[in-house]
Amino acid sequence: MRRLLVLVSAIVFVDTMLFGALIPLVPGYVDEFGLSKLQAGLLFGAYGGGALLGGVPGGVIAARIGPKHAVLAGLVVLALASFGFALAGTPTALGLARFVQGFSSTMTWAGALAWITVETERARRGQTLGLVFGIAILGAIVGPMFGAVARSVSIEVAFAAVGVVALALAAVVAVHPPARIEQPAKGALAGALADPAFVAGLWLNTLPAFFFGVLDVLAPLALHDEGYGAFTIGAVFLLAGLVEVGVNPVLGRVSDRRGRLLPIQAALAGSVVTATLLALVSAPIAIAGLALAAAVSFGGIFTPGMALVSDRAEIAGLNQGLAFGLMNTAWALGAVLGPSLGGALADWRGDPVSYLLCSALCALTLVAIVRRPRRVQLAG
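The structure assignment produced for this chain is given below.
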């Protein structure tokens, strides 16, 4: 089990590192190619677009061929996409490579999370998923610094090296024992989608992805406009990610012991405050500080939301690979709409409008959960 946990953690680390690597590179691409905030958002959101298109197919693949083989296929595609990004020289080529990276992540994430979930008892599932997600956040932490180093040294060499690492991980996966076989119940998918708690869990993956999509585009551009370089921007997101790494395993344990409801409500309430303050401030130090706060509030929604999806899938008899494929689709929807819609609104009316939209969505979700708390309870 420990070897599997290390392997799964390494896989999600590489995936999220690539996702976050573009953060400090966005201002440079804006200057190099003359991109608007909308265009920058579309470039950043291309990863989410690939994940959105591949979310359900990735889950189906994981369910039919098994988590191990889904992960293996995803890593090979990820390697090819990384080589493509290294060779890209236009915004279109960069966006296409990001799109394929996102598509590959649907197989690696659905397979990896299903793999670790079926090997973990329910009483420890939140903690285990929190640990894995914490490592994923560590990848997101390293990503901006990786991007900053790549900008200074060589983007081509850096992303080609990631492709080599992905192939090496694929070799390790190929010799690892497969996951135990799940027996899905008849009509499980329809039953899960008719379950308000399962759907609520999916939405709780869409929401923070939307928030971070807005923040990851607008905050670096705001800091860049104030004269801060790629390393400084990367350092801000590095610190934010370190905070999130520490928070998620704790939230997982709390959700195991106290139920999914308490940490979800706390994270949503904190997100309302954080997004509202982001709309009100403009000083670089304030933006940096609120990026740290977002790591706790926005990021705190993910782990209990993921655990809720897994819990309700098990109750419905739904294969965990397909459940996490649906979760990938839910996450991807936020990852696409956040940067693209956030960038468009910022071009139209300024950054505060985008942040206030995040605050409003979070407040509405919190009100809905407070009024109908059984939607995020395990039993039923």
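Interim note for the steering committee: The domain at 2-376 is CATH 1.20.1250.20 (Growth Hormone; Chain: A;). The chain has a mean pLDDT of 82.
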